[in-house]
Amino acid sequence: MSLSRRQLLRNGALTALVIPCLEALNQIGANAATSLLEPKRIKSSNGQLNVNLEAKESLLDFEGKKRWALTYNGTFPGPTLVAKPGDVINVNLKNSTKQPTNLHTHGPHLSPSGNSDNPFIMVAPGESFKYTFRIPKNQEPGTFWYHPHHHEFVAKQLSAGLAGAIIVEGESDKLLTDTTDRTLLLADPRIGSDSSVMDTSMMDQMHGRVGDYLLINGQLAPTINAKVGKTERWRLINASPSLFLNLSIDGANFLVIGTDGGRTKPFSMDKLVITPGQRYEVLINAKKSGSLGIYNGSKLIGYLNTSVNTPISPSIASIPILQNPVKTRTLKIAQGGGGMMGGMRFTFNGESFDPNKVNQSVKLNTVEDWIISNTSHMAHPFHIHAWAFQVIDRGDGKSEPGWKDTVAIPVGAKVRIRLNFADFGGKTVYHCHILDHEDIGMMGIVEVK
Ligand code: C2O
Ligand code: CU
Ligand code: CU
């Protein structure tokens, strides 16, 4: 596919290209379309979850043909790992791809050191690595995910299919037993018959690569059939390397009960903007019966077959706002900054990623405010590993509820987040979750001790 078609996709002309397929599905009726499949769930027992994940090249079924992908264990998404606070997840990662890789747990409060959520580990082609993730007892229940994090390979490996969900179950799940609990991992892979789907141009890297179709759990325009008497509960994960999603359902709205880092006091939304990397857990409130279209912007991406419902309203308390930040630092996002790729890349405080440099030194068990500004021409989703934050000012003077690990930094805005550097120290990264930006250097190192 040529760059110009990719740019058309970016500019919203995707509708014209996707609709013929959707119309074909429509002609055979919504019920004849594929129903949404849930990725396989692997649950912990007796406090342990042991799983083998093999990253490998795979051919996946797609619209009657095969498409080339990288997968964990041959499926896209990979298996969903389900655990509880206090559990230990042991992952034996085998790298059967031709590139270096590793494994990042995006979101849960896990140590970034040793063989835990350590982004500096490199698993070479043909090698294996045993990860041990100890979920702290104070982990908020919610929806998290995993994907590779080897610098310079993240965007291509994620867009090729290396991603899966992590669910942490906790006390507040008892309020949600009357629901149909589904994982919806949204991603836009490039569709092709060989590994060239991973290739990209410098221009694509600068804008963030865009795929060919926005899929839900790897499926094109699937149908979700609501069960009578149960509230639909969706764990939405934006696993696209670059797309900001703007989701809506024609005839229904979302009751948000969870953000990136855990549950939150329920609030209702007609549309949900989800940046790359972010998650929302929602209950669906259908105001119409029938086959309702699920949209990203104006593009139809699936269907919900439902009758009118009143969702359960779990009494989840709002989270207390962190107090007494001991320090305020500023991070300036800008374009340019010299070096090999000059104006083609984005930087924090004028610096590109340097694996040997600590950019931010933080005192363990302190709260800090970071003010992130953006003078570049595009919005960037800012993400930090291991320690969650609250959005005090999202750039327009308003706060955002809930725990977050990723937040949009709009063009021209100054966003204030409050970070909780609690429980353990270590060295890890913050970066833009337009992962091509991260791969070309829009990343820094934070050390907490
Ligand atoms: Cu999902 Cu460092 O990222
Ligand atoms: Cu992450
Ligand atoms: Cu960016």
Q: What gyration radius follows from the Cα positions, in whole Å?
A: 21 Å
Low-confidence stretches: 1-32
Instruction: Specify the structural class.
Output: mainly beta
Number of helices: 4
Report the sheet with the most strands, covering strand number, pairing sense and barrel closure: 6 strands, mixed
Mean pLDDT over the full residue set? 92
Please indicate the percent range of residues in DSSP E strands (runs of 2 or more). 35-45%
Give the strand line-up of the largest sheet: 11-10-13-18-15-16
Number of strands: 31
- Overall helicity: under 10%
Global shape: globular
Q: End-to-end span in angstroms?
A: 48 Å
* Molecules bound to protein: CU-O-CU linkage, copper (II) ion
What descriptors fit this protein?
binds CU-O-CU linkage, 6-stranded mixed β-sheet, binds copper (II) ion, 4 helices, 9% helix, single chain, mainly beta, 449 residues
General description of the model:
With 449 residues, the chain is mainly beta. The chain has four helices and 31 strands. The N terminus is likely disordered. Bound molecules: CU-O-CU linkage (C2O) and copper (II) ion (2 copies). The site of CU-O-CU linkage has 9 residues, from strand 6.
In short:
This protein has 449 residues and is mostly beta strands.
How do the strands and helices of this protein lay out in sequence?
Elements: H1 3-27, E1 41-43, E2 48-62, E3 65-72, E4 80-83, E5 88-95, E6 104-106, E7 128-134, E8 142-147, H2 154-159, E9 164-168, E10 179-187, H3 202-207, E11 215-216, E12 223-225, E13 231-238, E14 245-249, E15 252-259, E16 262-269, E17 272-274, E18 279-286, E19 290-296, E20 299-306, E21 327-335, E22 346-348, E23 360-362, E24 366-374, E25 380-384, E26 389-393, E27 400-404, E28 406-409, E29 414-421, E30 426-432, H4 435-439, E31 443-448
Parallel strand pairs: 1-4, 2-5, 4-9, 10-13, 12-20, 21-24, 23-31
Antiparallel strand pairs: 2-3, 5-7, 6-8, 8-9, 10-11, 13-18, 14-17, 14-19, 15-16, 15-18, 19-20, 21-22, 24-29, 25-28, 25-30, 26-27, 26-29, 30-31
Residues 346, 380, 432, 434, 437, 442 line the site of one copper (II) ion (CU).
